[in-house]
Amino acid sequence: MAQKPSIPKGTRDFSPAEMARRNYIFDTIRSVFRLFGYHQIETPAMENLSTLMGKYGEEGDKLLFKILNSGNYLAGVDPALLDEEKFVRLTTQISEKGLRYDLTVPFARFVVQHRNDIQMPFRRFQIQPVWRADRPQKGRYREFYQCDADVIGSDSLVNEVELLQLIDEVFRRLKIRIAIKLNNRKVLAGIAELIGAPDKMIDITVAIDKIDKVGIDKVNEELLDRGLSEQSVKALQPILQIDGSPAERLDKLARLLKDSETGALGVQELRTVIDSTLSLGLDAELDLDVSLARGLNYYTGTIIEVKALDFAIGSITGGGRYDNLTGVFGMPGVSGVGISFGADRIYDVLNGLDLYPADLGTSSQVMFVNFGGAETAAALRAVKALRAQGISCELYPDQAKMKKQMAYANASSIPYVALIGESEAAAGTVTLKDMAKGTQTTLPLADVAASIRG
Amino acid sequence: MAQKPSIPKGTRDFSPAEMARRNYIFDTIRSVFRLFGYHQIETPAMENLSTLMGKYGEEGDKLLFKILNSGNYLAGVDPALLDEEKFVRLTTQISEKGLRYDLTVPFARFVVQHRNDIQMPFRRFQIQPVWRADRPQKGRYREFYQCDADVIGSDSLVNEVELLQLIDEVFRRLKIRIAIKLNNRKVLAGIAELIGAPDKMIDITVAIDKIDKVGIDKVNEELLDRGLSEQSVKALQPILQIDGSPAERLDKLARLLKDSETGALGVQELRTVIDSTLSLGLDAELDLDVSLARGLNYYTGTIIEVKALDFAIGSITGGGRYDNLTGVFGMPGVSGVGISFGADRIYDVLNGLDLYPADLGTSSQVMFVNFGGAETAAALRAVKALRAQGISCELYPDQAKMKKQMAYANASSIPYVALIGESEAAAGTVTLKDMAKGTQTTLPLADVAASIRG
Question: What percent of chain B has pLDDT over 70?
Fold first, then answer.
């Protein structure tokens, strides 16, 4: 006999109850994106490998899911490549397409391909799954959703201020208390310059990014291991120890970085963004964190990261400004800033803190019992009438025993069960049972919708 | 320089305007599914090939997109298979996963895998893309959405009646006039029996399915070619020429098939479904069409197909009853009935007939002009206040020339432009320009939302 089927590791099925929770997250993010004037696009799951390869580093290339060419993919392939030592070169011969790895590269490709149809500044959002052949582990999947909003074609810091407000509004609606951490890549460049190691910016940021996890001593060790001089490490210490309110940190940082043109510009950008955001008011905590690095090769200005305050998990949203989104596709000079909400981690936070609304609508509002014959016909008419009034309902399809029908309603968490027996059918009434309270009343069909809506 | 990027043939990007139209379709279908008590699930894009292979016929196996195993997929492969003559066997060695081809097989797999968590009768809906390596052509894509609703674990004909009402409601809301064609696989079996060719049911249905396209003479030719006797073809003619209202056709069919037990049962099922549906009332035309076959190997009872009345295109929705959804995965006896809406064809019909609502909300409702400095700060506050009232708005991010900002608003079809200059900022007012009418008024910020809502 067939064995019990399964799904590929790192992928998931979502049940109706899980879908209700996920839709709550997606709907919230989507409606805030729209409120802020972002417009939805979608791109295909498959992209040409020429679009994807080389965009995520050597490791990323390996993590792309590649699709075997259709038909006889070996026809015309150089037989010398049919050797396990040469599989990397063979891959380019037998696979031309891959699954998207994120939403940013497809967006860049979209912008270049449709450049004549796009109105700049272009505010786009995109909510779609991405695929990565990562080793699956707790909280890391091979298929997961990204929810991205970007505005391109404008280098105004107003965009950063808007995105911070957007983040604040999403998490305010989701009732998740957050801290938004900010940094600026120019500040990181300024720091590297200041401590006499301008060519070591990446080493510095990779090391100091871990300060929360491993502590300052380990960070200093790593910096020395990465070839920084004792003097540079010493010069870095006052920066790592900056404390106080965001305004105080900015002042201290400004003094420390005053001799680096780039660094000073970074501080000024941070100040503009922070001052403007705080003066508009927000629910989130806003922190300046000079140890924040995130995908450094990519970002060129503001860097944003969001942490949940009441639940231990990695960053739940992140983003930043980039100066050259589309250069790799031959369209230079397109600057932008964007953020990405991690729907799966947000799902874990909401589950962990039990923050879902009470009624997510995972069931019909009413189930009609099926008594058969003329009563079933009457129930079908009643169901039709209620649906016309916007009440989601169902008729139990089979004329099963009452006990079985009620057990189904119970197990499905349907709040109301409606009965139309002979007397109700004759009188044009419905007997409505409130499953939570255990009460029941008989009322005219015309009054049922109002009664359910309370 | 990099060449202009492109996407794989048969796939599509969707612009904001296209997304607004697609969302209108998906939202309509989704809300009717919910109104009728169907619950959403989602399954992964990738399934194990062992789940997919052999479920869609030999041709279907070829049309599956197969994913190359990660890492060195050639390691351990028998070198004898590295030969273009043996690519089919090699495929099973280097690819374990494929992209889903439809939503039905993944649903069957889902039901078996989660059988202990599912409450029967189980009404599920699923709206996700599927992928087929078909030759792309007008209206046929390699990535397209299916919108499926099925109820399993019940063989009551009430389910058919409910699904017909669901179809009627979806197209009523979309304002597409339709004919729903019905048939029953048992009727087809009865016909084959009646004309003395019970083993030729598939040949008969394949041939008569084309009667609308090629006419009765060609159908008869094909039947003879397919090995039916002259006598059988002659006996078939009265059935092919049945006409009249659905009730009249049923009566004629009942008389013709009275000696076939299976055929008579099929007629009786059709009569129950049609009578019950007509007595509840529907907007759609309801036709009985004995030439309707659809995926015959699969369906065992009712067969449903929907055609648009005012636009020439293939079937835009279809479905039917099956007796053994999950048998192939080792769980026999699960009967069900389902329908699938073809979102892409519905999109073509709505475009062709221009049936979209006037305002699909593809832009912000208001754009604030950016004057810089204190006026920008005032505009940011106004934007925040309007969003809190549910008005989607944006601030032009750059302090560009007025002409440029207005051109953007125009090109983006933003209905209102708001100006906060020095005097408005001082007075707490906004000058609101109605882009369609060309009029403008200055009013307190507190009144703007009401003014926009009209």
Answer: 99
DSSP per position, B86-122: GHHHHHHHHEEEEE-S-SHHHHHHHHHHTGGGPPSSE
Q: What is the pTM of this model?
A: 0.94
In our burial notation (b when 16+ CB lie closer than 10 A, e otherwise), range B416-426 reads: bbbbbeeebbe
pLDDT at A254: 95
Low pLDDT (below 50) residues in chain A:
1
pLDDT in tens, B85-120: 888 889 989 999 999 999 999 999 999 999 999 999
**Residue whose tokens read 């208390």:** A177
Question: Which H or E run contains A40?
Answer: strand A39-40
Helices and strands (H and E) in chain A: how many: 18, 16
Give me the count of residues in chain B: 454
DSSP string covering A105-156, please? Answer: HHHHHHHHHTGGGPPSSEEEEEEEEEE--PPPBTTB-SEEEEEEEEEES---
- The answer for B 179-238 residues in CB contact with A (under 8 A) is none
ipTM: 0.94
A96 touches B at CB < 8 Å: yes
pLDDT digits (tens, 9 = 90+) for A135-192: 988 888 999 999 999 999 999 999 999 999 999 999 999 999 999 999 999 999 999 9
Look up tokens 């832009």; give the residue: B363
Set of chain B residues whose Cβ sits within 8 Å of the Cβ of A46: 7-8, 11, 65, 131, 142-143
- Give CA–CA dist A287/A294, Å, rounded: 16
Number of neighbours of residue A161 by Cβ within 10 angstroms: 23
Q: CA-based Rg of chain B, rounded to a whole angstrom? A: 29
Residues 6+ apart with CB under 8 A from A450: none
Residue A16 C-alpha, separation from nearest chain B C-alpha, in angstroms: 5
* Residue of B103, B158, B277 to mutate, interface with A, max A Cβ within 10 Å: B158
Strands (E) across B92-228 are located at 95-99, 122-131, 143-152, 178-184
Q: Is the pLDDT of residue B275 over 50?
A: yes
The helix, strand and coil proportions of chain B, stated in percent and rounded to the nearest 5, come to 45, 20, 35
CA distance A340 to A167: 10
Could you say which of B73, B330, B380 has the minimum Cβ distance to residue A87? B73
